[in-house]
UniProtKB/TrEMBL annotation:
Family to which the UniProt record says this protein belongs: Belongs to the isocitrate and isopropylmalate dehydrogenases family.
Organism: Halococcus salifodinae DSM 8989
Protein name listed in UniProt: D-malate dehydrogenase (decarboxylating)
Cofactor(s) essential for the protein: Mn(2+); Mg(2+)
Domain of life (superkingdom): Archaea
Record-linked InterPro entries: ICDH/IPMDH (IPR050501), IsoCit/isopropylmalate_DH_CS (IPR019818), IsoPropMal-DH-like_dom (IPR024084), TTC_DH (IPR011829)
A single GO molecular function term of this UniProt record: D-malate dehydrogenase (decarboxylating) (NAD+) activity
């Protein structure tokens, strides 16, 4: 865009577990690509996460959003630690950033690259779809007072909120994405069992469809969609789903396209009013921390999405091509999740060499 700032200011939230390792590994790759395309990145590290929770009582400071607001984008490694309850991690950092910065699109591509084996051996020709997950409301809403766990420990109430604004904007983004891709959109709901929120969602899909008559719309219940992502993954182009369903579908997407070590993600505010946040789909992976075997490619691909969002499309393209060529090269180093014996650093260095 015209108002872009160069150098770009990027806030780094390396976080917990393998987060710092993959961010450290990806950064020199991003810098090499930026250099080749004539811009620079100015990064600031924020040490928010589980360690801070233990020492200060919160995952991030009270004015955390104010501190991040001026940045062009945010790169997150991962947050979460076995010593901190998952709902604290989610509600103490990830959800406030996603909601506070109106990052209402969670975009998660699932592309099977040449050279990568999918567990679904007979469908490996054309796995290339993207999930648009609603990222600010739905099942992850908190409507003060209504949600509770009964004091007698015999009851808990958890609701979901679907607003017209919130639903329309994610659905419209998904239609736009489908228009730019193969013109096919799959809306995933559970309208048979959830007759209010999900039927409302269906109605809005119908309304927005009128603006995009050329897009073919398919509707699937989430149980059928989960099955079909395994049975016929090549049939999908763009999927749109609520916060919870989108989360589940994107784990399936990650595994059919080569695993957690490869899957990128963007929490995107399409208005650019606030910074967007890019992060690998995977979590902090406590089981492999400190072993130097975390695959940095999910983070590198998240960086390609970050560059695209900043308007640096040719840098993003370079990054995507570098990853694609690296994965297609049988002699290139691979971390153990992809069947190799290479370290995180080996992969980073190989990617850097390809950029030069
Ligand atoms: P979260 O609760 O944060 O989603 P999780 O418990 O679901 O975390 P992940 O961190 O997503 O777990 O990891 C799931 C599995 O995938 C783990 O066994 C982990 O070792 C593996 N894994 C995740 N990320 C990577 C990576 N970058 N490289 C290699 N293996 C990974
Ligand atoms: Mg997980």
């Amino acid at each position: 865009g015209d108002d872009r700032r160069v150098p770009y200011e990027v806030a780094l939230l390396p976080g917990d577990g393998i987060g710092p390792a993959v961010v450290d590994a990806a950064l020199p790759v991003f810098e090499a690509v930026a250099d080749r395309h004539g811009f620079t990145l100015e990064t600031t590290v924020f040490d928010w996460g589980s360690e801070r929770y233990h020492s200060k009582g919160t995952m991030m400071p009270d004015d955390g959003l104010d501190q991040l607001e001026g940045y062009d984008a945010i790169l997150l490694g991962a947050v979460g630690d076995p010593s901190v309850p998952d709902h604290v991690t989610l509600n103490g950092l990830l959800i406030p950033i996603r909601k506070g910065f109106e990052q209402y699109v969670c975009k998660r591509p699932a592309t099977l690259f040449a050279g990568i084996e999918s567990p679904i051996q007979n469908h490996t020709d054309d796995i290339d779809f993207v999930v648009y997950r609603e990222n600010t409301e739905g099942e992850y809403s908190d409507i003060g007072g209504r949600e509770h766990r009964g004091t007698d420990a015999e009851l808990a109430v958890q609701s979901a909120v679907f607003t017209r604004t919130g639903t329309e904007r994610i659905v419209r983004q998904a239609f736009e994405a489908a228009t730019a891709r193969e013109g096919k959109l799959t809306s995933v709901t559970k309208s048979n069992a959830q007759a209010h929120g999900m039927v409302f969602w269906d109605d809005i899909v119908n309304e927005v469809h009128e603006e995009f008559p050329e897009v073919e719309v398919e509707r699937l219940l989430v149980d059928a969609a989960s099955m079909d992502l395994i049975r016929r993954p090549e049939a999908f182009d763009v999927l749109v789903a609520s916060n919870l369903f989108g989360d589940i579908l994107t784990d399936i997407g990650a595994v059919v396209s080569g695993g957690m070590g490869l899957a990128p993600s963007g929490n995107i505010n399409p208005t650019m009013e606030y910074p967007s946040m890019f992060e690998p789909v995977h979590g902090s992976a406590p089981d492999i921390v400190g072993q130097e075997i975390a695959n940095p490619i999910a983070t590198v691909r998240s960086g390609a999405m970050l560059f695209e969002h900043l308007g640096e499309s040719s840098a993003a393209e370079t990054l995507r091509t570098v990853v694609e060529n690296h994965l297609a090269d049988a002699a290139a180093p691979r971390t153990p999740d992809l069947g190799g014996a290479a370290s995180t650093t080996d992969v980073t260095e190989a990617l850097e060499e390809r950029i030069e």
